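Posted in: Structural Biology > Protein-Ligand Complexes

Title: Requesting predicted complex, S-adenosylmethionine in pocket

I'd be grateful if someone could produce the C-alpha cells for the following input. Sequence and ligand are given below.
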Amino acid sequence: MRQTIPTKRFAEFFAGIGLVHEALRGSGWNCVYANDIDPKKEAMYKGHFGPSPYFHLEDVWQTNTIVEEIHERPFLATASFPCTDLSLAGHCHGFEGDKSSTYFGFIRVLQALDTRKPSLVILENVTGFLTSKGGADFVKAVCALATEGYWIDCFVLDAKSFVPQSRPRVFVVAFHDSLKSTRIIRQERNEFFGDAWQSAIDNGGSLRPDSLLRLMAKTTVPTGWATLALQPPKQAKYSIASIIDTDNDQDWWDKAATNKHYKMLSDLHLKEVKRRIKEGGTHIGTVYRRCRYNEMRAEVRFDNLAGCLRTPRGGSARQIVMLIHDGNVRFRWMSPREYARLQGAPDFTLADNTIQSLFGFGDGVCVPVIRWLDQNVLTPVYEDELSSATHTNRSKKPPRKIIA
Ligand SMILES: C[S@@+](CC[C@H](N)C(=O)[O-])C[C@H]1O[C@@H](n2cnc3c(N)ncnc32)[C@H](O)[C@@H]1O
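-- Reply #1 --
Done. Output follows.
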C-alpha cells in the first residue's frame, strides 16, 4: 500500500490573534483550520493575516461542527488553551474551572477526528499547569493525550531567552504512535527512566526543572514518554532599549500621575530609582502595580527585562514604563506596539482599540519561542516523515512495463 505523503499543514486551536501562526508560517507551515470563540481575537487575526476563510469562530465544545470544518488530516495541531484557572489570578480552580477545562473540548475534537488525528500536538500554558491540584491536572492532561495514541514530552521555555520579557511557559509535545521518525526517542517499556530516553532527558539540562522531572517520574502515561535530543535555547543578546520608545512623542503622564506613582514605590525600589537618578544618563524600568498589605505599590525592575505581559483585566495588570533621563523621571503605560515587540512580533497589525491589542498580545505566545520549537522539533519530525513516505512510495513503485 502506498503511504500518504504528509503535508506541512496545521490546525490551531485557541488561536487567539494568531501568534502561533505568525511563528510557523515562515518555515512553510500552512494553516488549514483556526478556532477561537472570541470575535475580537478573530478581528485582530484577520486584520493581520487578511481574509482567513479557515478561521472558525466557534466554541471548542461544539465537536461535530468543528470536525466538519476540518477537511483533511493536518500534520500538526496546536492548543494554547486558557490559563485562567491554572494561575493564582484564577483562584486555582484548575480543570474544575470552566475556562481551562476547555482543554477537554480539544481532546474531544481529537477523538472525533479518529483516523485524521494530527501526527503532532503541542500544548502551551503557564507554569501553574504543572502545579495545579498538586500536579493532578497535568497528569490528567497528558494521560488524555496518551489515551488518544500520543507519546509525550514536556519542557519549560522562557521567552527571556529570545526577547526582554520574563515569560516562562510549559510546552507539551505529543508524538503520535504512528510516527516513524528515528529522532523520536521513546522511553523503554517496563524500564522506567531507561537508556537513550533517560540520557536525552538528562542532556536537556534547564529545559526541564527538577519539579517537572519529579512529576514525570511519578506519572505513568498509557503510551510512554518520548523526546528528541534537545538542548536549551542559546541566550539571545538584546537590550530593552530596543523595545521601549523614549522620545517626547509618547503619551508620558502629567505631573500628578507621575508623582502619584513615584510615591507608590517602596523604600527598596525608591533607593534603586534614586541611585540611577544620581548616576545620570538614561535608564529604562518596567513597572507593575501590585496590592501589598492592602496598599497599592509600584514595583519597578531595571534588569533589562519586562515583566510577563498579562491581559489588562483590572488596573494592576497593565505594564508601565519608567524612564529616567538625566535626572528626570517619567512614567507612561506601555504601548500596544511595545507589547507586540515583547512578544517577538514587532510588525503585527494592531487593533484600532488599545485594550483589544493589549488583550491579544497579553494572552498570546511569544513568537520566537514557537520558532525555536519549530526548528528543533516540528519541522525536523515533519521532514523525517516526508522523506520516509517518499522513500517508501519510491521503493514500492510497480516495475515499469518493458515495451518490446
Ligand atoms: C491563551 S489564549 C491563546 C492565544 C493564542 N495562542 C495567541 O497566541 O494569540 C486562549 C484562547 O482561547 C480562547 N477560548 C476560550 N474559551 C474558548 C472556547 N470555549 N472555545 C474556543 N476558544 C476559546 C480565548 O478566546 C483565547 O483567545
